[in-house]
Design goal:
Helix 5 (152-166) runs parallel beside helix 6. It is globular, with a radius of gyration of 28 Å. It has two domains: 44-150 and 291-318 and 347-358, Response regulator (Rossmann fold); 152-288, Response regulator (Rossmann fold), CATH 3.40.50.2300. The model is unreliable at 1-44 (pLDDT under 50). The protein is 43% helix and 17% strand. It has helices at 2-22, 61-77, 91-103, 116-128, 152-166, 182-197, 214-228, 243-256, 270-277, 291-307, 353-358, and strands at 51-56, 81-86, 108-112, 133-136, 146-150, 171-176, 201-207, 237-240, 262-266, 283-288, 314-317, 320-323. It has a six-stranded parallel sheet with strand order 2-1-3-4-5-11, with helices on both faces. The protein has eleven helices and twelve strands. By secondary structure, the protein is of the alpha/beta class. Residues 53-309 form the Periplasmic binding protein domain. It comes from Paenibacillus agricola. It holds the Pfam family Peripla_BP_4. This is Sugar ABC transporter substrate-binding protein.
Length: 364
């Protein structure tokens, strides 16, 4: 009797197995493991808790502060954490910081300025370790690395065109500029083309150096220039290729009472905007990309890399021209600038639908 029961039970098991096979039932598939931040079949949730390194050549002034704020805001919205490495302008230290980030096994690396000579070896090492890299304002040409740049030539053209219009195409100017930075070199191309075309405008002095005290150093140098050209009409305007230059020059001109000299700059931060809005300040116009947007956009492309998406080799950010006559009499911040200047802030560059869905509110 027991043997009969065992036979019947065995037959039922066999029938059940055959039925399952006929219905196409299969063992549950195991999800593939993520490798170094690559996307998994579970989607954007797999990108939480990423460690992001921001490797900076120099962290100086309110522009850099707002840029870092944009980086951190976007990373935190995607559930990650940022560590900032700054080199105080020392390229050897910047290269060492990049190596440190690789050795500490960060999930992604952002680079801010620097040179190809100092960074390319480290960037290639990062890619070998499957760590994605997104750079800003550095002339790196390594396959697989996306490089962001502001529309530097366009920014120079916008400010120089305004300078020329305000001067009626003639007068003496001072150029404040420094070599050795990719964005500066691009701005210089536009400056040279402008000077070649506008023969009524003469450059009477040129200087500029990047340091941890750029604004103060510029102020001292501008004071010396003003003593060299003491008379009204000796200098009509100053073209400053960086907001730190514009700050220093503005303070020197204002303190000297040379209110006839106007400044046309590049870049924009809350401090810069406050100066441009001041009717007693010689700084009257600037062209820029929102520094917070630069940080946000750079992070978005890094997370696209982490997600396994293809990204372009070069991204050009669209600049905006800001002049005093566009602004209200009451003081505003860059967060309010979009209410008065079309195209400022809230850029959608680098956004994908899955990125928007992956974002979470950040507690301030």
């Amino acid at each position: 009797m027991n043997k009969i029961k065992q036979s019947i039970a065995l037959m039922l098991v066999l029938i059940l197995a055959v039925s399952l096979a006929a219905c196409g039932a299969k063992p549950e598939a195991k999800a593939p493991e993520a490798t170094n931040g690559a996307a998994t079949t579970t989607g954007a949730a797999s990108l939480e808790n990423k460690k992001v390194a921001l490797i900076m050549q120099i962290n100086l002034g309110t522009f850099s502060a707002q840029y870092i704020e944009g980086v951190k805001e976007q990373v935190e919205k995607l559930g990650g954490k940022v560590t900032v490495f700054t080199a105080e302008g020392d390229l050897a230290k910047m290269s060492s910081n990049l190596d440190a980030a690789i050795n500490q096994k960060f999930d992604g690396i952002l680079i801010d300025h620097g040179t190809a000579e100092a960074l390319e070896a480290g960037v290639k090492k990062a890619l070998e370790k499957k760590i994605p890299v997104i750079a800003f304002d550095v002339d790196i040409k390594v396959p697989g690395v996306t490089v962001l740049e502001q529309g530097d030539q366009k920014m120079a053209e916008l400010t120089l065109d305004k300078l020329s219009k305000d001067m009626d195409g003639k007068g003496n100017i001072v150029k404040i500029w420094v070599a050795g930075f990719a964005p500066m070199e691009r701005r210089q191309i536009a400056y040279k083309a402008f000077m070649d075309k506008n023969t009524g405008i003469k450059e009477v002095a040129a200087f500029g150096a990047a340091s941890q005290n750029t604004a103060l150093d510029t102020q001292a140098q501008m004071e010396a220039i003003l003593k060299k050209f003491p008379n009204k009409g000796d200098i009509t305007a100053v073209w400053a290729a960086w907001d730190e230059f514009a700050k220093g020059a503005a303070r020197a001109i204002q303190q000297a009472g040379r209110t006839e000299i106007k400044i046309y700059g590049i870049d924009m931060s809350d401090e810069d905007l406050q100066m441009i809005q001041d009717p007693k300040n010689p700084w009257v116009a600037s062209a820029a990309v929102d520094p917070k947007d630069i940080g946000r956009i750079q992070v978005r492309f890094l997370y696209q890399k982490l997600h396994g998406d293809q990204t372009p080799e070069k991204i050009v950010l669209d600049p905006v021209f800001v002049s005093r006559d566009q602004l209200p009499a009451t003081q505003i911040s860059t967060a309010q600038l979009s209410e008065h200047v079309k195209g400022w802030g809230k850029s959608e560059q680098g956004y994908t639908e899955w990125l928007k869905q992956a974002e979470k509110p950040v507690n301030k």
